[in-house]
Every structure is written in structure tokens, then in C-alpha cells.
Amino acid sequence: MSPPFQEPLFDLSAVTHLTVRRRNVLRSPKQYGSADEDARPYLDEMGLELLPVPQPIQFQPNTSEVVHRWSPYVQGFSASFVQRTIERYKDEYRSPVVLDPFAGSGTVLVQAKMNGLASWGVELNPLLHFVSQVKVSSWHVSAERFLRIAEQVLVSQKFAEPPEFLKSESHFRPAVLFHLRRLKGGIDSLQPTDEEEAQIRNLLLLAFAAILVDSSNLKRAPCLGYAPTKVVDDNAPLRLFSNKVHQIAEDLLLCQNRYTSYLDTPARVLWGNSMHVRPNEFCDLMITSPPYMNGMDYVMNYKIEMGWLGFGKSHRELKKIKDQMVVCDNVSKSLIHSFEQVERYTHPWIEDIKEHIAHNIRRRGNYRRHDMPSIVHKYFDDMYRVMRNTVEILRPGGRIVMVVGDSLIADVYVPTDLILARIGEDLGLKIERLEKARERRSGQVRSYRLRETIVTLRKPETE
Ligand SMILES: C[S@@+](CC[C@H](N)C(=O)[O-])C[C@H]1O[C@@H](n2cnc3c(N)ncnc32)[C@H](O)[C@@H]1O
User: Fold this and answer.
1) Which pLDDT tens digit goes with each residue over 256-291?
2) CA 32, CA 143: separation in Å to the nearest integer?
3) Distances (CA, A) of 141 to 59, 130, 131
4) Pocket test for ligand 1, best of 102, 275, 311 (most atoms within 8 A of CB)
5) Residue 326: is its pLDDT beyond 80?
6) Cα–Cα–Cα angle for 217, 221, 225, nearest 5°?
7) Do 75 and 222 form a contact (C-beta atoms < 8 A)?
8) 124, 131, 382: residue to mutate for ligand 1 pocket, most atoms within 8 A of CB
């Protein structure tokens, strides 16, 4: 689809002090290019246009919104995008059941509940499963009782041990670690005597998880790494925990007043792999943002919270979870090798892209991962499996609305949005709309403009 080889813009053979990676970036024929240009031949073949509909779709505004702000995991999308989508389609269905097979921190489920719509989620990371489940199942909790129990935790003298497999001494300053161990010890020593106390304990664990990175010498931006210039004072855990607890209490009161008749609206998150796991109920509206191809590692970036909450007891355990996820580009070589041995979903565009990536990697002689063509292939195969599994429970007339980011890999443009739309067609869906929501920069070639697209697919009324 794209030419197999394009001439570099500059001759850099005389410049010797550049790293190989930097030289490849500067030589990239994709400098100052754009996804819109490179997607043209694909769109022409599909006979479709991409509608420009600029809108905020990132998670950032959620950090100040009721309930959404309980967790700081910023890989999600904005509550306002989910709200617009619900409003757009809600009247076409009689009380639609909403589904998110990549529930993450629960944006879709929380927003569905705020609209009185039943919802389902599936999430493979046990920490995020816990977070999203707590965010939709605690709205009844008495804010007063919650604050009272939180006070007990703040003065507790019980100490928990930090997770053995993590380097907590380098993650936290000694005084900070002391307070964290005490807070966690206090939560662990609670012995719930009724359902509400069990929910309060979960809310406190969620609050504890939410302050860990802010209390640490690390930052998540979005990948987890050390922040050498970060200053954390001794009492940061106590202050941050207390603030988070008060924020949650405020939101509980607000939910009980504003969403009184929706407190019992069901919202259930299944813990599992959405390639196989799905609700046993038909759904009308699937709103989701799948992992991006060369994007986040949804396990290692959360290892601190997973370790402290007991959702992973070793790196080996975390790796096992990671290997089941829709693939990202730091999975094990052996996983990709075994993928290469079997017959998988494919499409001529995928084969073409793989070939061009392999060609460019050979030409460069050096690339971060030589198995990149197979990683790309596995990404689409994984997404095919998730879509096939969920299409089964999509009611006729139901819709899939996905926020998808495309990629640039070894100077080859990968139109992820269009390929996922084609997979939808292979599964019997109609492409209803392709909307370009925003532009973003490629991580590899900063001057190249990628995009984020809202892909809307519809299941025909009669099959
Ligand atoms: C882009 S995030 C979704 C964020 C979510 N929209 C939010 O607002 O928090 C993708 C999520 O998919 C999850 N995931 C990846 N592969 C999965 C799989 N095979 N089954 C279920 N969940 C998966 C990741 O753990 C991550 O939480």
C-alpha cells in the first residue's frame, strides 16, 4: 500500500557523532509527514472519508470529575467523550446495555451508571479490575462511616510489610515508607463486620493505591520511571491519603444526592481476558478504547500498586498477566516466537505492512525489536479475537464505538483505525462512521502527525 522504500530527506553519512537511533530518525522519510496523507490510499480503497470532528477524548479532565477522579490512571479516555456517545445513541435503544471489554479504570461504567444505564466491563489487570469495580459498587456507602473508619487507619500503629519483589527502599524515602507501611497495616487490620464495612475497606485500599506514585520517587508519564528532581516530604502519604479520602467522601454524598435513583443500576466488571470472557447478556452499545499498538504496558506501569495491594507477588506473575494482554511492544520474544508458529487472522493490508516493516528493519540494520512485524500481526490477531468474542453478544442494531490511535513503525504507517474497521466488516459489521478526533505526535519521529479516530461500527438489524 505504501511504497516499500522512500529516499531519506538528508544525507547524514558524514555526521558520525549521532547515535544510530537518532540518525535513523533524522533520515526518516516520514519527517513532517502525516497519517492523513498516508491513509489516503487505504481510504480510497475502502471508498470512505474520515470526518474531522475535533474533540477532547483524553483522560486528563477526569482527574477533577466526580468518582472518575478517585483513581489517577491516566491511560483512559474522557468521561465527556463517553457522555457524548451515550447521549448520541441512547434514544435509539430502549435503555441500552453498555459494554467496555477494556474497562481499565472504569470510565465507561461509571458514566453509564450516572445515566442510569446497566453496564458490563471486562478487564484483565486485577488492580484495574478492582479499581473499576469499587468505583461502581460503593455509591451507597455512608460518607460519615467511611470518614470515621479512615480516621482509625490514620492513627493505626499496625505495620504492613512492603511487597518483597519490589525495591521499596529505592522507590520511597525512609520516612515515607514508614507512613505507607502504617497506613497499609491499618487498612489490613480492619475486620469488616458487614457489607458496608467491606466496601469501606475496598475504598480505603483504592485511596491507598491512588497515592502510591505521588508519594514515591517515581513518576508515571505515562511510563513508570525515576524522577530525580522530585521532592516528597516526610508526611506526604498522610496528607495525600487524607485528601483522597475526603474527596471520595464528598463524591459519595454527591452521588447519593444527584444520582439517587441510579444507585442500584447494575455495573459489573468481569476479571479476565476479553478474547474469551464476555458477559452472558446481550449488549447494545460497546464503548471502548483498546490498547494502542506500540503504547503502554498495562502491567509493569502499575507494578507498585499491584505489589502493595497483593495483585502480583512476583515479576514472574506480572509477566504472566502481561503475556495474556492485547500485545504491546515489550512482551517476551518467546511469546512472539510461538505466535509465529501458528495460523492466525490476517488481511492483505496486514501482510503488506509486515513486509514493509521487515524491509525497513533490514535496511536500517538495527532496530529495537526485529520481531516487530510479528508484534504488529499479533496485535491485530488479538484485536480480532476480542472483537469476534464481543460481537457475539452485540444485539442486532447494536454499535461498537472505539477510540483508536494509529502508529508509525520503522517508518511504516499502520492505519490501526482502518484495519480494525475492516476486521469489523469481516465479522459482519457495517462501518458507520470514521471520525478524526485529534492529532498526536509520533513517539519515534516527532514531526510526523498521527491521529486518534473514533471508529463506529454497527451490527445489521437482520443477520
Ligand atoms: C486504553 S486502556 C482502557 C482505559 C479505559 N478506557 C479507562 O478509561 O480507564 C486498555 C485496557 O485494556 C486492558 N486489557 C488489555 N488487554 C486486555 C485483554 N486481553 N482483556 C481484557 N483487558 C485487557 C488493559 O489492562 C487496560 O486497562
Assistant:
1) 999 999 999 999 999 999 999 999 999 999 999 999
2) 53
3) 26, 17, 16
4) 102
5) yes
6) 40
7) yes
8) 124
